[in-house]
Queue: 2 jobs
Job 1
Amino acid sequence: MATGLINANPIVYERKERRVRDSPIDTDEYAEEPIDQLEIFDHVRDIKDPEHPYSLEELKVVTEDSIEVNNKQSHVRVTFTPTVEHCSMATIIGLCLRVKLMRSLPPRYKVDIRVAPGTHATEAAVNKQLNDKERVAAALENPNLVEMVDECLAPTFE
Amino acid sequence: MLASCSGDKTVRIWEQRPSGSWACKAILEDTHNRTVRSCAWSPDGKLLATASFDATTAIWEHVGGDYDCIATLEGHENEVKSVSWSASGSLLATCGRDKSVWIWEMQPGNEFECVSVLQGHTQDVKMVQWHPFYDVLVSVSYDNTIKVWAEEGDSDDWHCVRTLGEANSGHSSTVWALSFDSRGDRMVTCSDDLTLKIWDTSNDPSQTVGDNDRPWSHLCTLSGYHDRTVFSVHWSREGVIASGAADDAIRLFVESKDYSVDGLSYRMLLKKEKAHDMDVNSVQWSPKEPRLLASASDDGTIKIWELIEVSQ
């Protein structure tokens, strides 16, 4: 890792135990199962931090409670907490969250990504950029950025 | 005839058959190597300009059923986001992520010369559109403002004659698009702040001098109708405003005859929920048939709609 880490000594938290979903046998297997908080959390918890060998869950960047789901309106909102309030990695973390959910959820889902209120120095600017889909699309045509994102999304945990 | 552009780097030309159905007549590919963000026909319909994230704008000519790329306009540092022809067809404007607006002049022999690079926006410029009659250009931006550009006298010197920002009852977030009404005396803009705004554009701002003329001012705001970002807005020749938004819906608005205290008001004529399966990125009325509307979406489809009746 290059010199000058943004946050040299992040606090690392314990990972939550994986809950196994109950799969009731007698239900209609073709029935559409609503997507819940835990399912979204399972999609994003193992995303790797861009500069540390820890997951976003271990750094408490995302928690299950930071995820809101409205199935009826096909709407998901993820509120993440950067490890330090000047974290220049905030947009790349947000981009990773967006890409992971774009790849994992049915296309009808509207995803909003934002930093937790009061946890980042340039909160409004970061939120605006992460939710401008044109800029996100342009960013994802940049091979260097995509490589960075893919590295964070690579399944290195379990 | 309809042109569509896409993240798949192509432009497709669609034509209506006598039976009424639409067919893809041509695919313009291998010229842009990134997303084609915007396209525009020249006023005489002979040329098509396409703006791409690859930092270039291409000009295509329709020759004997085929489309040839006759010019490539280079100069923007990165993504070009919009392109627009002036009413006379002699000027072309482009804008992009490098915060600049470029004005190009068409020369004999398919040469395009850059006549001005306009700086002023502090962020990504999302769209440019010429006034339907005057050589006056409007740009809208991620910096939340609308800028009006005109030539200074006869000097060929383009400059910003008006900035419509939050202080002028303007938008509080990204302005995505704009459209003029058929007479050019009103303009509608749409934004990430979930509103549409109507502006008085009846003065030619290149002819007014001094602040007292108050060229181009806010008339009214349509709020409370949209739940997510409004990406596109277009004014039909019959005066119907269509909007396309990130909530998958298309809405139509008309001027309300019941004048409010403030003078002017608009009402929603129709809301088409689930017009598409995903975000509606563009809505565009047919210039020939004023009740025919085309819409394009993230779901990869283009839909053609007909407005059957405008109830009063």
Job 2
Amino acid sequence: MKTGVLETQEGSSFVELGTTRVTAIVDGPKQAIKNVDVHSLEGTVRVIVNNGSGIDHLLQSAMRSLICLNQFPKAQIDIEITVLEDDGGVLAASLMAASLALCHSGIPTLDICLAAHVAITTDDYIIVDPFKKDMTSNDCLSVTVGIMPSLNQVICYQQSGISSREQLSKAFSTALTAAFHLYKIFCDALRVSQQT
Amino acid sequence: MELWTVFDRTDVAKAKLNDYRPIIIETGVLSATNGSARVRLASTDLLIGVKAELAVIDNMSAYKNCINFYVDCSANATPLFEGKGGQEFGEEIASALYAAYDNSFAISDLSKLIVSSMHAWKLYVDIVVLQCGGNVIDAAGLGCNYYFFMFNIVSKPKSIFQVKAALFDTQICEVITRPDDEGKITVDLPEDIVLWKLDVSRAPLFVGVNKLGSANVVDLSLQEQACCRAALWIAVSPMISLEEQASSEDGDYRILFIRQCGGGSLQSDTLADIVSFGIQIGMRLQHLLARYLLVSMEDF
């Protein structure tokens, strides 16, 4: 994990999970572009994902609960995610990249966001952060969890594939444990950016 | 008791947190489609049409997307869907439906859709949101939380498209007898017409569970939805047949899809409670829908 990868941008980050590489750029808070008739007391978050499909809604929902939006009335925060390489776990990497970029830009958030991707294959093996080739078919269970570790709250949760109830709870607890392990790496990346 | 003042129910004294508003389902409402349904959940109105097209596939081993979903958020539903306003919302629903159906469990007859080494049936499912439920106060988040999905390929016996699906299995014999025709395969329509249906006994149903204070609530109206932040979409699919579903609510099930949306956060402890709550509601809905499907099949 790295912050400040773009010198001209005040909030930017780079997250690498194995061969999955994601960059995030935060722009804002700025005046809202969209003409909204209703006066919103909270700010809005807009997420743009390049080279990724179908994860911008999840990221937007997660970032809305992460950022203290009540401090930015009538403002808009843009988060741009670019997927440089995809080898599984893009949603988890994007969540952490966006949170890292928000911290680097100085936007107040409730907590940091840690994410983990866990899969259970059809022969009932649990794989933490699987490669794309490990996901042999669409039938195996795939769980991505994004958490706020200090508050112990889940801000992003997506499961696809066929699963029973026991498999789901097992994968969920494994994903939580794997996400907590990334706490030290995340804080170290922030401290390195503060020293420079 | 303060919780009850939030709810917009006609009979507040008898309303429960796990109750649904009245659901009306009609099938065969569009004659030009291979299958169609109209679902009304109190004041939420959805129109669903399924079209089957024969597509030429170059690489059959890498063939995906045999079921395509598109959600059209009509501006008739709410003024917030004007222009491109409903596009993001429609894409979100379509991706959820696609993720729930993109496996070999939900529709077990997907291999039937492959006719030959070059041809396969492609199903296009179009959903039109005609009305968003309740008073239109703030439908910016989620207008429709519940998506009842039903394949009913045989809605009109004179429809010509589904005839090919069943009959092209017999065309494989002719393919073998003509191997020297530049490696290509032609498809013909036999004279005898036979129709067939997809097996929908394991198609998933979505349940949207919302967290309101410390309560788990299903089937929110728009007023109640404005008070909630976190929502969880759960797709539950039973493993038993349609007749067994119609006879009992209990049975083995599989979870095909879960997604958290709405912009709020959830405690990790309560997430398991919400999942079990949604599964229980989903299996009850499957039970009621299976009874309706069997009755409508007898009428047909």
